[in-house]
Amino acid sequence: MDVSIIGSGYVGTTVAACFADLGHDVVNVDIDESVVRAINDGDAPIHEPGLDDLVAAHGGDDLRATSDYDAIRETDVTLLALPTPSHDDGSIDLAAMKAGAEAVGEALAGKDGYHLVVVKSTVVPSTTDGTLAPLIADASGKVEGKDFDVAVNPEFLREGSAVEDFREPDKIVLGTTGSERALERLRTLYAPITDAQDAAVVETGRSEAEMIKYANNAFLAAKVSLINDLGNICKEYGVDAYEVADAIGLDDRIGERFLRSGVGWGGSCFPKDVDALRAAARDVGYEPLMLDAAVEVNDRQPERLLALLDDHVDVAGERVAVLGLSFKPGTDDVRNSRAIPVIERLQERSATVVAYDPVAAGEMREHFPDIEYADSAADALAGAHGAVVVTDWDEFAALDGEFDAMADPVVVDGRRIVDRRDGVTYEGLTW
Ligand code: UGA
Hints:
Elements lengths: L1 E5 L3 H12 L3 E5 L3 H8 L10 H8 L4 E4 L10 E4 L14 H14 L6 E5 L7 H14 L7 E5 L9 H6 L3 E6 L3 H15 L5 E6 H31 L4 H8 L21 H14 L5 H22 L8 E5 L15 H10 L3 E5 L4 H5 L6 E2 L3 H5 L3 E5 L18 E6 L11 E4 L3
Parallel strand pairs: 1-2, 1-4, 2-3, 4-5, 5-6, 7-8, 9-10, 9-12, 10-11, 12-13, 13-14
Bound molecules: uridine-5'-diphosphate-glucuronic acid.
Uridine-5'-diphosphate-glucuronic acid (UGA) binds next to α8.
């Protein structure tokens, strides 16, 4: 198929490169000229394992980039993969999506024949029905259901394993008005995946598809907050929350994944999506108590981590090592990383923060230009009066003699990645 994708962010670029690799002809539209050049030169504009090879293999060939929306006229289907950030009150900011929908509509005004537009971005239920589809109709002067259709096809990729997640999805969600033409195109788009393996295809309504994405992220975020709540109780009773999680995870109804308790969830998706859903719920007069609690538990975990450090050292005026800055291992993304509140709270305690991360120090410098960034975990630990572990990078599991160089060998682990050892006072956040 000829596929156009609007937006070359993390989702747009990954999906564009993966569709090209599946055999489709892909054009990626983005207003950023430097991103357009990079893709055409075969360079991935974002860091994601496996993406470099795909963009190198297809960029400038069956994966082209342009800043001209008119390119979508030559394609069968257009995916909108634009950002949906939050307003200050947590509600969804649709400005980029609305502008994208209008630009797509204007380009489609000059197209003969049927076209399918697909909303890939995460949007609150009823956005496509109430806002995006009407915008496309108005801007194109065409009739929805006759000249074009709009479908919703949310994305479930995780940062750090996006290419793999795309190739082997648990599910593909296709939300439509019921239009057979739209469904036919969507099935053809995903046929290289669904022909090759058993991926569940969920054909549903558009608002249901929009809600499935939020429900998925909200459920997982709440699952982690619930295991953190239970973990906090475990810690108070001297119980190992990880042994408890391993056991309850054996119950199919609970499942073993996403039961790692600790300093909490971050990233660009869980915080943004849970907040957007809470705001959308309040918009229609519903108090989302469970989701509010999930956020509250998450917000408290960094303070609990530091309270454990306070039990052993007075950090005022002392060096404290922060190990890990990204919101999870495998990425340099620090958006909503738990390291941010941890560093803020250390600063409130007048500690001198020495931070180390294998890849995310550069990103964190934008938030905290004045703290010290060490080149290795060993350098961060040397002379430190205590260390807190915020990200579960594998290399922290291999630390050993490095702890001997600490002035006060106290380690508070927020991710259960460091082993207990002789000579080190070790506190697990929930174990
Ligand atoms: C998440 C979802 O997992 C994806 O399915 C979704 O497509 C994506 O958001 C999105 O909406 O774009 P991602 O933000 O990349 O993916 O990260 P996750 O792997 O889900 O981790 C989120 C946070 O939860 C991390 O801070 C991680 O450390 C934390 N976490 C995860 C825990 O604290 N414990 C766990 O057991 C699992």
